[in-house]
Design goal:
The chain is of the alpha+beta class. The chain folds into 2 domains: 1-81, SH3 type barrels (Roll), CATH 2.30.30; 85-146, no CATH class. The chain has 5 helices and 7 strands. The protein has a 5-stranded antiparallel sheet with strand order 4-3-2-1-5. Strands 6-7 form a two-stranded parallel sheet. The radius of gyration is 18 Å and the shape is globular. It starts with a strand and ends with a strand.
Length: 148
């Protein structure tokens, strides 16, 4: 079973597929999208890896019981469900409800900032720091947001 990693830049979970050049790793996310990430931006995520392994065992047994050959679940099926708030996909109300110390006005400011960015999406967690009324250090430490 391959180790899952958390991308420090986006907060997202990925699996390393191969190395491409000095310190650059080719990775897949839960949607099997390919990303090239600097090795130093990846942190091993043991809990997610254990959950993925459990999912794979359970789904393989289910597929075998149904008579599927080969009984091999896909990455999409086995990747752990990420319950952290994806700022790019969440509404202002969802952000306000999920983040401690963030009210609806601040959450709307976060969404307004998002609309000014290239592609109308945050690319890095650090971009959130420009909203000053939020204790981003604490939110990042609690690992409750991502920007995928």
């Amino acid at each position: 079973m391959a180790m899952l990693y958390q991308n420090r830049v986006t907060g997202g979970l990925v699996e390393v597929v191969s190395q491409h050049g000095e310190g650059i790793l080719m990775c897949l996310d839960a949607n099997e999208e390919v990303f090239y990430i600097n090795e130093e931006d990846l942190v091993p995520h043991l809990d997610a890896t254990v959950e993925q392994e459990r999912n794979e065992v359970r789904l393989t047994e289910d597929l075998k019981a149904e008579g599927a050959k080969p009984a091999k679940p896909t990455k999409k099926e086995t990747f752990p469900i990420d319950t952290r708030v994806n700022i790019n996909m969440a509404s202002a109300r969802q952000i306000a409800d999920a983040l401690p110390g963030v009210g609806l006005k601040t959450a709307r400011d976060i969404k307004d900032l998002q609309l000014t960015l290239p592609g109308e999406r945050f690319q890095r967690l650090e971009q959130l720091r420009s909203i000053k009324r939020v204790d981003w250090e604490e939110i990042f430490k609690e690992n409750i947001v991502r920007v995928e």
